[in-house]
Amino acid sequence: GSELAGWAMGRWTYEGIDLNHNFADLNTALWDAEDNDLVPHEFPNHYIPIPEYYTLANATVAPETRAVIAWMQRFPFVLSANLHGGELVVTYPFDMTRTYWKAQELTPTPDDGVFRWLATVYATANLAMASGDRRRCHYDDFARLGNVINGANWHTVAGSMNDFSYLHTNCFEITVELSCDKFPHASELPQEWENNRESLLLFMEQVHRGIKGVVRDSDTEQGIPNAIISVDGINHDVRT
Fold first, then answer.
1. Any idea what DSSP says for residue 223?
2. What residues are labeled active site?
3. Is 33 helix (H, G, I), strand (E, B) or coil?
4. How is residue 229 annotated by DSSP?
5. Contact, 215 vs 147, CB < 8 A?
6. In sequence order, which residues have a C-beta less than 8 Å from that of residue 224 and are 6 or more positions away?
7. Which end of the chain is more exposed for a tag (fewer CB within 10 A), N or C?
8. pLDDT by residue (tens digit) across 205-220?
């Protein structure tokens, strides 16, 4: 059936690049700096720069990936979701295990509570995930976990868009696995839309949670760009 046969179809670009693993690995640089007590006075805990090797002309970076990064740098997104297929679960960063040789390991971000909330908001409003008689897609019983999981605790991914968004921009991003079936038939699409419509709306509404405002110069009343906002107890700053 279409749930298992040809699951990798369309996964790689014409150049043979898997876009889901194609962003710069910023996790390793951050964790090395943390291990050497360099964060945040010598190495930032946010807006981590892209490594030089990744910007070289001969680097294995797809034009689609470069375009998305340019888009993210141009617009100050704060909330995002990317949509996948093949499972029924919502994953949240980090997607890469901190212990490099482990295939699975709980690896939370400093904003773990917010990410778990965002994932849960989507999952609890998704009709397929929230169904009392839903079956497992394949092997993992995500229903017993509330249909959410830390990405690295499922399977490690280096260079994911979720981790890159969090470490290089202000954006909090999750991954939504929409359906057991990667290739639903046309007749099934209306139901897939109904399954996800309310989840998508509720997720977008979460952009209004938390603290928001404008940082201004006390003398001129002008807004201050790139002002760093720090929260006690959260080792991850954001910028205006």
1. B
2. 177
3. helix
4. E
5. no
6. 215, 216, 217, 240
7. N
8. 999 998 889 999 999 9
CA atoms within 13 A on the CB side of 25: 14
Count of structural domains, the chain:
1
For 12-69, the pLDDT digits (tens) are 899 999 998 999 999 999 999 999 999 999 999 999 999 999 999 899 999 999 999 9
Please state the rounded mean pLDDT for residues 103-130: 97
For residue 43, tell me if it sits in a domain. Answer: yes
Q: Among 180, 179, 183, 204, which Cα is nearest to 193's?
A: 179
How many CB atoms neighbour CB 55 within 10 A?
Answer: 13
Adjacency order of strands within the sheet including 79-84: 79-84, 172-177, 89-92, 148-150
* Domain assignment present for 6: no
The per-residue pLDDT for range 73-83, each reduced to its tens digit, is 999 999 999 99
Which residues make Cβ contacts (< 8 Å) with residue 181, sequence separation at least 6? 2, 3, 85, 86, 188
